[in-house]
Amino acid sequence: xxxxxxxxxxxxxxxxxxxxxxxxxxxxxxxxxxxxxxxxxxxxxxxxxxxxxxxxxxxxxxxxxxxxxxxxxxxxxxxxxxxxxxxxxxxxxxxxxxxxxxxxxxxxxxxxxxxxxxxxxxxxxxxxxxxxxxxxxxxxxxxxxxxxxxxxxxxxxxxxxxxxxxxxxxxxxxxxxxxxxxxxxxxxxxxxxxxxxxxxxxxxxxxxxxxxxxxxxxxxxxxxxxxxxxxxxxxxxxxxxxxxxxxxxxxxxxxxxxxxxxxxxxxxxxxxxxxxxxxxxxxxxxxxxxxxxxxxxxxxxxxxxxxxxxxxxxxxxxxxxxxxxxxxxxxxxxxxxxxxxxxxxxxxxxxxxxxxxxxxxxxxxxxxxxxxxxxxxxxxxxxxxxxxxxxxxxxxxxxxxxxxxxxxxxxxxxxxxxxxxxxxxxxxxxxxxxxxxxxxxxxxxxxxxxxxxxxxxxxxxxxxxxxxxxxxxxxxxxxxxxxxxxxxxxxxxxxxxxxxxxxxxxxxxxxxxxxxxxxxxxxxxxxxxxxxxxxxxxxxxxxxxxxxxxxxxxxxxxxxxxxxxxxxxxxxxxxxxxxxxxxxxxxxxxxxxxxxxxxxxxxxxxxxxxxxxxxxxxxxxxxxxxxxxxxxxxxxxxxxxxxxxxxxxxxxxxxxxxxxxxxxxxxxxxxxxxxxxxxxxxxxxxxxxxxxxxxxxx
Amino acid sequence: xxxxxxxxxxxxxxxxxxxxxxxxxxxxxxxxxxxxxxxxxxxxxxxxxxxxxxxxxxxxxxxxxxxxxxxxxxxxxxxxxxxxxxxxxxxxxxxxxxxxxxxxxxxxxxxxxxxxxxxxxxxxxxxxxxxxxxxxxxxxxxxxxxxxxxxxxxxxxxxxxxxxxxxxxxxxxxxxxxxxxxxxxxxxxxxxxxxxxxxxxxxxxxxxxxxxxxxxxxxxxxxxxxxxxxxxxxxxxxxxxxxxxxxxxx
Lengths: 698, 250
Known about the structure:
The complex is a heterodimer of chains A (698) and B (250). Chain A has 698 residues and is α/β, with parallel strands linked by helices. Chain A is 39% helix and 14% strand. Chain A contains 24 helices and 21 strands. The longest helix of chain A has 27 residues, at 293-319. The termini of chain A are far apart. In chain B, 26% of the residues lie in helices and 26% in strands. Chain B has helices at residues 29-37, 44-48, 50-58, 78-90, 95-105, 110-122, 237-241; strands at residues 4-6, 10-15, 18-23, 63-65, 68-71, 74-75, 127-128, 133-139, 158-160, 178-181, 195-201, 206-208, 217-220, 222-229, 246-247. Chain B is of the alpha+beta class and 250 residues long. The chains are: A alpha/beta (698), B alpha+beta (250). The A-B interface holds A 69-77, 124-128, 130, 139, 141, 143-144, 153, 155-156, 158, 169-175, 198-200 and B 3, 5, 7-12, 14, 17, 19-23, 25-27, 49-51, 54, 64, 66-69, 78, 81-82, 85.
C-alpha cells in the first residue's frame, strides 16, 4: 500500500544549532507499537497475520487461500499458514523489526506500516514463525525480551523439500478458543478467497449487500437515507478486504457549509464506500481511518459520487414505473421505510416531474373483500378520516375500478353508493381519488378512462320511507322529487356527448343541446342526461359563456327577448324553469315541472279534467308508468292548447314555443319508435314531430 | 534434552522438529516447568501436546482429527472434548464417555443429539457406565407424576411412552413427553412437591431439550427411576458423594 503524503520542505535561516529528534526504542515504545495501538488484540492479530499471508499469496500468484487452524481444547495453538513466497532468515528477522515493510511501493498488498507482523505480541509474549524458503526451513521464536524489546531467536534451521511459505503459530488460552473463531469470521469475512479453516467450524457472517440496498459498482452501496438514523445505520468505507467505520463529523467538517444537501446526506446515509487500497489512509492499527486532508478529500468526493449515483439510481427506478401514480407510491414506500427526508426526496423526479409521494395524495384505497365487512357508518368513518393508505398496490388490472369523488359533501353518502356498487359488480378493488379530474386519471393510475367513474354516477341509496305528517307541502314535494330522481337513476347508461367549445362552430339543426356556461357540464345536468334514453351522438354540449349567441336558432332552446325578460322577472320564474327543463330532458322531472306549470297557469287539480288528474295520480303512484306517460303527454298538450287558444294566449307564447319544441321530445319518440320496431333515425323522428305539430298546434 | 524458551507467561519447547508453545494458563503449564527443571524430558511432549495425551487416553476408541475428538470419523461437539479432558485429568475410564457417544448415535433426532452434548456440558451430572445420562425428576408424594398423577415413579420402575407421542420441538417449553431436569431447574419448579428422584435415561430415548431454562430440562420417551434424593441435597449430591464425571456405581 502507498500512503498519500506531500513532499516536505523546510526553509530556515539564522539557525545556530540543529539536532534531529530520535525515537527512543524501549520497552514502553514496543508495548505501545505492538499492543497499545490495538483495542481488539485478538481481532488485530488475526487480521494482520492473515493480511500478510494473503499478500504473500498475491505476490506469488497463488490463487489458493492460506490455511488457518483454529485452536481447540486439545491444541491450544492458532496457526496461519501460507504457501506464498516464503521468507529467508534475514527477511524473517527484518520483518520482526518495527516499521520494516517491503510493501510501500505499490497498492497491491495491504501492508504498509511494518507493524502487523508483530501484532501477536499484543496477545502473547512469545510466538513462532516457521518459514520455508528455497529448500530451508527456519523456525524462529519471536520472544519479548527481559527489557521489553523483542528478541527473535532462531530455534531451528534445516533443509526441507516443502514448498515456500510462512506459518505463524500463536499460543492461545483455552478460554479464548471461541473468541479466535469469532474474530476469524468477523475480521476475514471480506477477504477473497476466504481462508481454509481447519479445526472448529466457522459461521461466516452474511457479507452480501443488505436487501433493498442500491449498489453503485466501484462507488459503494446505500442501504438507506433515513430521516432519523439509528446506531445501526453506519457509514463505512471498504478498503480492499478491510472495512472501516467513517466518522461523519470529520468528513462533514470538510464540506462547504452551504452545501446543505451533501451535509444532510453525510449525516443520514447508511451504507458503504468502496475505495481502492491507497485512496484513503488507515490508522496503523487498521481499526480506524486517518482523517488527513487527503483522506477527507477522497472521502468527500466518494460520498458525492455516492449521493449523485444514488439519486440517479432512484430516479431510474421511478422512470421505469408505468405512471406517475406508481412513482408516487414507490416514493411513499421509501418514505414509509426511511422516514420523510424532505431534503432528499425533493430531488426525486418521475420523468422530470417532481414526485412527492402518495402520502400527500388524498387517496382512499381498499379491497372489495374488506368492503363487504364495512357497515356504511364505519366505512364512512374510514373514508373521511383515513384519507390515504399505502397498503394496497394498484395495478392496471381490468378488475379494478377507479372512482373520482366529485360529490360535494359526505351528506351524499359516498360510502353507501360504493357499497351498492360493490354488491352488484365483480370489481375487487376500488380506489377513490379526490382532487382529480378525468384527464388526470390516465396519468396518475395508468387506467383507461373507461375504467374510471364519478361517484355522482353511482346509484344513490334508496330513500327512507317517511310519514309526511305536519311537515308541510314543501318537504313533501322535495321528498317526491328525490324519489323520482332516485328511480330515474336506476336506468343509468353510458352517454356519448359531443362538445362544442368553439362559439363559431356550425351547430347541427337536429339533436339535443345543453348549454354549459362555465366550460364543463355541471353534475346535475350530467346525471339528468345519463338518466334519459337519448341515443349516442344525439346530445351536443355547447361550451360558451354567452349562450344566446349560439342557442338562439336551435330547435330546443328558442331563447328570445321574452325569455330574457322572464329571467329578470321573478314572477315569471316558472317559464324560466321550463326553459331549463328543455335544456335537460329529464323525463320524470319534466313531468313533475309540467304539472307545476299547469297548476300555475290555472289548471288546478280540482278543476282540471279528471283524466288529467288521474294520470298525474297514476304517475306519482308509479302505476303503469309508460302508458300513463303517453296518455298524460297528449292530454297535457291538449290542455295547453286549450289554455293557449282560449285564455292566456299572449302570455303563453313562450310556453307554447317551448312545449311545441318539447313536443319533439326525441328521447321519448325514439324509445316509442324503437319499442314498436319502427325506424328511429333523425328523418323518421322529424316526420313524427311534424305530424304531432300539425295535429296539435296547427 | 529439547531446546526451550521460557518467559514469564509462556514456554516454547522444540521436539520432533516442531516448536510447541503454551501459555501460563495451560492445564499442564506448571507440570511442564517442573518436568523441564527436573529434566524429565520424556514427559514433556505429552504435557505440551494434549493431543498426544488424549490419543493415548482414548486408546483408539475415539480419534483426534484437527484438534477435535471424532467418533467413526465424525467430529464431535466441543463439549465431548471438554468432558474428555476432565475425565482424563481425574483418571476416569473413557469407556463411560464412549458408551455415551454410542448411545447418542442411536438417537434419530439431530436436535436432541445437539441438546445432549450441551446437557453434559451444563448439567454437571455424571454418566453411567453404560453411557446413560442421569437426571432429576420432581414427583408427587405418592410417587406419581405431577402432571397426570397416573404414572408410577416408584424406585426401580421404568416409565415409557411411545416416542411418537412426545413433542420433539425444542421451541415448545412445556409439551408432551416424560420430563426430567438438572439440579439447576429444581428451584424453578414451585408446585410444592416434596419428592425428587434420580433418573437414568438412555441418550437414544431423549426427545428434546427446550431452549428455555438454558438446557436445564428435557423430554424423553423412557427412563428408569434409580433412587430418591432429598430435594435440598440434589444440587450437591454428586459433588459430595460421587465423582461428578462418572457414576461408577450406577
